[in-house]
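Exercise (ungraded).
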Amino acid sequence: MAAQNNIPLPDSAQVPDEPIRPANCASPEAASQSPGAAPTGLAALGRFDGVAFVLAIPPDDNAPVDSWKLENYTDVAYWARDTRRRLAELGGSLQAGELAGAFGFGPREHWALRASEEKGLLCAGFQPELSAEEVEQTMKLVFEQWAS
Amino acid sequence: MGVLKQPDAAKSARRRLPGGAFTVDSRGNLVSSTVPRWFPEELALRIGGDILAVFKGAAAVRLPCSQLRVQYEAFSISAREMRGGAIIFLSPKPAARPPALS
């Protein structure tokens, strides 16, 4: 009946228990492990001091991204790809060589981007207490472990 | 007579890159500069526009930053956000020195 279709559902019936995710995205906590288990995958990268989140973006734009402790990973993945492309093209125009990395330092969080031809793009967030040098050094270690 | 060694092809193909700093306003217009005059203004504008776009994009995905550092093989760009514009520092990386003779 048409009248039944107009009856509003209670909020609890409209909000799914799990956030709705695009089909091409893995769970944001996909890398999380059961309690007591040694962290593996992206969660293992979170063991480095000061790491707040990790987002791994494969070279194929249609492949799922993998994230750890990042809520808006689809937005960040799109932005990270665009930023990397933009900065790589800028480097090409300047004939400055390959893009080695990009770092942002903010009041709430720092972030870093670094790419591997084989594995894709890694975006990591860092706690704001870290200095610029600490962020760069930690990102180097995180990236090396991820890319190995 | 000595033979001159051919420079590495990739390095010789690279553009000469300057050191210096310049500022851009929130619309990407060049406001002031200490970059040498031989460096094309359109490239400075391109750098300024891309840096402002990265600042804006980061803020849009809730990763706002007031400073940026972009590293290339032979060059690095540092930037500080200033009321929607930015001050941008260009730093060519020094060529690798041969190891010191002991």
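Further reading is listed at the end of the chapter. For now, observe: Chain A has one domain: 40-147. The radius of gyration of chain A is 19 Å.
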